[in-house]
Amino acid sequence: MEKKVGIIGAGISGLLACKYILSKGYTPIVFESRSSTGGVCVNTFQTTKLQTPKSYFQFSDFTWPRAADEELQAWELWGGNGEPFGPEGKWRITVENTQTLSTEGLLSRFRDPRFSNIPNIPVLPAGKGPEGFQGDVIHSMYYSAMDFQTAAQLIKGKRITIVGNMKSGLDIAMKAATANGVGCSCRMLYKTKHWSLPDYQPWGIPLLNLYFNRFSEILIHKPGEEFLLSLLATFFQLWWVFSTIVESHIKRKLSLDKFGMVPKHRFFKEISSCFITTVPKGFYDSVEKGSIILKKASEFSFCKEGIMVDDESAVLETDLVILATGFKGDKKLKDMFVSPAFKDCIFGSSTAAIPLYRCNAFIPEFHN
């Protein structure tokens, strides 16, 4: 009997799940609300690079060519003609339109992941929102959806304030600094300092060897662990050792002490919460030149001329505000389902410190 497995979403994670389900002999059925595969990976900035090294990002049986650079300057080469991958390197997908009941074969095309397509827009008190601001406000998701020429024209010669200092914010700030220079500096507002990586080789040691192997199991205590593992986790304190190695490398490469950007938390917390991001090349050089200005802001609000930060009286005069404030992945997940009970079941408690997805499934490998 044919076994079918349903996958919700044709983003990069859905396509990855599809690949492995096929390899196990099952028939995957992928449900996608939009008319394209790749999810939000379809749209990205012109200067965006992969978050992870190419060797981590590719499949062993679906490798990239040796000549492909991680900063792909000509995305059209990856448009489905098969040339970069060779004659065997195409992902063939059959798409069924549920409205017209028609089917179509295509080749998938996707880019750098962006998690969700529901932007997280900060909620501000009445009278302090963008309604009275004379400039423009846009979320990074909509900026990335623009063609490269329109995106370049939007930021050219503008006094730009970026809210948020994760991957999207870093990329846009670097692009704005390159386009406008010191004469029209780009401000970046941030709440929390992060351990953003300059590369994945701290002191020449692949990060993969520190955190992504069986040896890393003794970094922390686990429920029901054996006495020996508990003893190793208690006395070796490897999480502290590994964090120190990575942190010293980041501080040396990016001169974080010089710019006052050393986080208070340890790198282990950063990587455990999946907040790892990479710094664009030359980012802190632009900070030193003054084309990027970093400013800590616990709270901000809009006024006619620009942005007000915390309780400061000075106005940050701004022409364009770009919200690099992330996405509402929880809302997207919950809105997929009609039943309120199932929404609560799939997402978990809203009062939990870290709500997790859960399912009441019987998994033989775990059971035994």
The CA-CA distance between the termini, in Å, is: 26 Å
Shape: globular
Structural class: alpha/beta
Portion in helices:
25-40%
Order of helices and strands: EHEHEEEHHEHEHHHHHHEEEEEHHH
Strand order in the largest sheet: 5-12-6-7-8
- Averaging pLDDT over every residue, what do you get? 77
Uncertain regions spanning at least 5 consecutive residues: 69-91, 105-115, 353-368
Largest sheet: 5 strands, parallel
Count helical runs: 14
Radius of gyration over C-alpha positions, nearest whole angstrom: 23 Å
Brief description of this entry?
This protein has 368 residues and is an alpha/beta fold.
Describe the model:
It is a single chain. By secondary structure, the protein is of the alpha/beta class. It is 30% helix and 15% strand. The chain has 14 helices and 12 strands. The chain has helices at residues 12-23, 54-57, 140-145, 148-155, 167-180, 207-211, 227-236, 238-254, 256-259, 267-272, 283-289, 329-334, 340-347, 364-367; strands at 4-8, 27-31, 92-97, 102-107, 136-139, 160-163, 186-190, 292-296, 300-302, 306-309, 315-317, 320-323. A 5-stranded parallel sheet has the order 5-12-6-7-8. β9 (300-302) and β10 form a beta hairpin. The longest helix has 17 residues, at 238-254. The protein is globular.
